Amino acid sequence: MKILVTGGAGYIGSHTCVEAIKADHEVVVLDNFSNSSGIALDRIAEITGVRPVVVEADLLDTPVVEKLFKEHSFDAVIHFAGFKAVGESVSEPWKYFHNNLVSTLVLLDVMRANNVFNLVFSSSATVYGDPEVVPITESAPLSALNPYGRTKLWIEDMLRDIAAADSRWHFILLRYFNPAGAHESGLIGEDPNGIPNNLMPYITQVAIGKLKELTVFGDDYPTRDGTCIRDYIHVSDLAEGHISALDVIESVKGCIPINLGTGEGYTVLELVHAFERAIGKPLPHKIGPRRPGDSAATFADPSLALELLGWKAKRGIDEICNDAWNWQSKNPNGYQTR
Ligand code: NAD
Ligand code: UFG
Q: Residues 128-138: pLDDT tens digits?
């Protein structure tokens, strides 16, 4: 297939480009590098031997997107582009509504005008809000806890409405649980701006000495050690899930949400201990207060992904930690140095 990957220079997008090229798809990346580096594309070329076509552009720029679709005959689009920082979305919601919603509308309009009706969308387990039952199946109630989550929910709703109105569309909504780790080569990985919000990049930056210690947000949750449980999924497993989605997208009727998770939950302290095994030394950490808005336990029922995509996660928590550390230690300043 010839595929357009919006946000293809980002963390999950770059790993997906690698797997797409490995699967012999032809890849065109559109990215404005608002949260990524062009060096990721060099690294994709280094890993795969193939350099994807890269268009540096904003998905909000309709004429540029129209021109791109005239120049290439795409079979499908994987849509990663968007902002994803939960805290920032609370303080600057308009920025999230504008970038995430409007860019998706631009993309859908241009796709329709060019008869491209296959879309794989990056959704998130955040659409389950604070889940009442775990493991979470796709039929669980949906809600948003913050403006970022609301953009995912609204886009999902939009795609459901569009699919109901026009049977030419095929949408797969991939609801990611907690992506972590890096490509086994250590050439691509997560490169957050500033102090990381998420657990794994915070841990790796403590391990490399850029941050002093990890604060564990709360140890009084009703879990086996009192810390929150999440479903950490290796980013290369996640990337492979997108390729499996491309394989079946033409046969999908309408709009289907699919969880991408492992089905295994780990507590914050279990992840810290797994990481300590990977680096062979203790990781400085202390217990702090709860972070507002965190749910006690979130993990996937991934059986629909196996049924519909023939996909399941192959890599476990130790591989996630080893690969995250390999990336961080080879690239202490992310894409700024090697
Ligand atoms: P990322 O920030 O690394 O990648 C997003 C990419 O999109 C970046 O390269 C950025 O430069 C680009 N981009 C943003 N706005 C753009 C625009 N208007 N035009 C062109 N390019 C634009 O994020 P990621 O972790 O790779 O996440 C990818 C997608 O998956 C996002 O939609 C995110 O919401 C979703 N997601 C991520 C996680 C996670 O924990 N990483 C979890 C669930 C869902
Ligand atoms: N945590 C800490 N200390 C930190 C950072 C995180 O203890 O410094 C804890 C959190 O309290 C939580 C766990 O580590 O219990 C994971 O936190 P993350 O911020 O890494 O991930 P979340 O599960 O909160 O959210 C992530 C993404 C969301 C996405 C969601 C999908 O940030 O965008 O996964 O499940 F929607």
A: 999 999 999 99
**φ/ψ bin of 268: left (φ > 0), alpha (ψ from -120 to 50), beta (otherwise):** alpha
Residue whose CA is closest, atom 28 of ligand 1?
A: 80
DSSP readout, 219-284? S-SSSSSSS-EE-EEEHHHHHHHHHHHHHHGGG--EEEEEEES-S--EEHHHHHHHHHHHHTSPPP
Q: Are 93 and 18 in contact (CB under 8 A)?
A: no
Which regions of the chain are under pLDDT 70? Answer: 337-338
In terms of pTM, does the model score above 0.85?
A: yes
Ligand 2, atom 30, residue with closest C-alpha: 126
Cα–Cα distance measured from residue 86 to residue 294, given in angstroms and rounded to the nearest whole number: 11
Helix axes 103-113, 147-165, angle to 10 degrees: 20
CA dist 166 and 154 (Å) reads: 18
> Helices (H) and strands (E) in the chain — how many of each?
12, 13
Contact between 11 and 35 (Cβ < 8 Å): no
Closest-lying ligand 1 atom to the alpha carbon of residue 57: 20
Residues facing residue 61 across a β-bridge: none
Q: Using an 8 Å Cβ cutoff, are 291 and 297 in contact? A: no
CA of 222 to the centre of ligand 1 (A): 32
Domains in the chain (CATH in brackets) are: 2-182+232-263+301-314 (3.40.50.720)
| Catalytic-role residue among 148, 176, 221, 232 | 148
Nearest alpha carbon to residue 134 among 304, 299, 259, 265: 299
For the stretch 125-183, pLDDT in tens is 999 999 999 999 999 999 999 999 999 999 999 999 999 999 999 999 999 999 999 99
